[in-house]
């Protein structure tokens, strides 16, 4: 005799359910998995496609990449920014060289304490960087502050908007990434969960 199951609460409906016959997924989870698969395929295509003007690449591919683990956890944003400057155009490389410190640890510490220690314009009563990391808008502000010393053009935050056509979303994202690379600034990309809704 089968046991009667009680109705699932809201959080349980969105969770993966394990049944005797194997794994089954709720509709919300199926949607998320399909969206994740599309995003993964899109990122793969994005990494391997070329535009009519040819492939886009970082200007200085043999630069030394900084490692966030030399300073602490949650230093990925400042580390990615330092790496973007290092792998960028000669003007971007000058910005990386101008950050005080002889080692990656010292440079990252400077960016985190001096630039990340300022108050956020975007989150009231919070510093830009905390033990939880830094948000994209504050990281954009830091990039512009560091770049202003070498008269670099302003960096802007691009957040892909949900589109009814995944191809349009992929094309817009590719154009932003390729355009930034062609202008000499390898973009800092933050990947988050995409649920397609």
Task: Please provide a brief summary of the model.
With 197 residues, the protein is mostly helical. It contains 7 helices and 4 strands; from the N terminus they run αββααααββαα.
Your description of this structure?
The protein is mainly α. The protein has a domain at 59-185. The chain has helices at residues 10-13, 27-48, 76-87, 90-98, 104-115, 136-148, 166-182, and strands at residues 17-19, 22-24, 129-130, 133-134. The protein has a two-stranded antiparallel sheet with strand order 1-2. It has a two-stranded antiparallel ribbon with strand order 3-4. β3 and β4 (133-134) form a beta hairpin.
Features of this protein?
197 residues, mainly alpha, two-stranded antiparallel sheet, two-stranded antiparallel ribbon, 7 helices, 45% helix, globular
Helix content: 40-55%
Give the overall silhouette: globular
* Element pattern in H and E: HEEHHHHEEHH
Poorly predicted parts: 5-25, 33-50
- Span from first to last CA? 39 Å
Rg for CA atoms? 21 Å
DSSP, total strands = 4
Q: What do the pLDDT scores average to? A: 76
Main-sheet strand order equals 1-2
Secondary-structure content class: mainly alpha
Largest sheet: 2 strands, antiparallel
What fraction of residues sit in β-strands?
5-15%
Number of helices: 7
Multimeric organization: single chain
């Amino acid at each position: 005799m089968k046991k009667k199951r009680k109705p699932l609460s809201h959080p349980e409906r969105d969770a993966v359910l394990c049944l005797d016959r194997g794994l089954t997924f709720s509709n919300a989870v199926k949607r998320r998995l399909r969206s994740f698969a599309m995003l993964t395929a899109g990122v793969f295509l994005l990494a391997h496609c070329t535009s009519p003007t040819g492939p886009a690449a970082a200007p200085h591919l043999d630069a030394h990449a900084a490692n966030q683990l030399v300073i602490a956890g949650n230093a990925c944003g400042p580390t990615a920014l330092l790496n973007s400057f290092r792998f960028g155009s000669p003007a971007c490389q000058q910005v990386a060289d101008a950050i005080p410190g002889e080692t990656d640890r010292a440079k990252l510490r400077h960016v985190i304490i001096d630039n990340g220690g300022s108050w956020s314009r975007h989150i009231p009563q919070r510093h830009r960087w905390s033990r939880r990391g830094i948000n994209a808008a504050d990281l954009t502000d830091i990039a512009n502050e560091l770049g202003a010393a070498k008269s670099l053009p302003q960096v802007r935050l691009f957040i892909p908007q949900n589109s009814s056509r995944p191809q349009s979303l992929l094309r817009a994202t590719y154009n932003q990434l390729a355009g930034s690379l062609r202008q000499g600034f390898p973009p800092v990309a933050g990947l988050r969960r995409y649920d397609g809704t």
